[in-house]
Each structure stands twice: as structure tokens, then as C-alpha cells.
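Now for a sample.
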Amino acid sequence: QEQLEESGGGLVQAGGSLSLSCRPSGRALSSTYMGWYRQAPGKTRERVARINWGYGSSSQSYLDSVKDRFTISRDRGENTVYLQMNNLKPEDTAIYYCYIDRAGRITWGQGTQVTVSS
């Protein structure tokens, strides 16, 4: 069964930065998407960012509220995806879940807490 190794997150003041990383146990393939969802207490899970793993230029998508603040990137050699989060806001506080989508088969990471204090 595939597993996702997540790292990063933590506590930061508003306006600060944090980064997350996620590495699947299996090799990412061209038909793969990876990214993060987040879930705040009492709210539904929402997709924060996604990146494709195809050859050539990458394609990213973002939740509107994080555009221009968050950047998702990939490192093929490290088989790892990263999420750089800048200018964090208290409303970004949530558990962030990495996921990998292999042609519709989705595996979730265990989640990482991100807390932004005002």
C-alpha cells in the first residue's frame, strides 16, 4: 500500500512563511497529480493546490484565496512535491493533507498542522 511522507508545517505569525513537502513511497508517473487539501475545524476539506507530474512544463492550480501567496512545485529527482506558503493569514490555519492521484486512485497523507496566529 502506498504511503506519503509529509514534513513541514508548524506555527507562524500572520505574514510569515512555512513550507510543506510530500514524497510518495512509489515513483510518481506522468499520469499522476499531487497536491494538498486542507481542513479547518468545522469546515469542509478544500483543495489548496495541485500539480501534474507529466513531462515538460508543469501545470499548477490553486484555491483562489491562496493564489499569489502559495507556490506548489515538484522535484522529479527527489520524487517530491513542495508547497511554499508566504504571507500566511490566520484563515490559513488548518490541517494540510498531501495527496497523490494516480489516474483516479487517491492516497492521502496523515496530515500536517499549520497554525497562523494573528
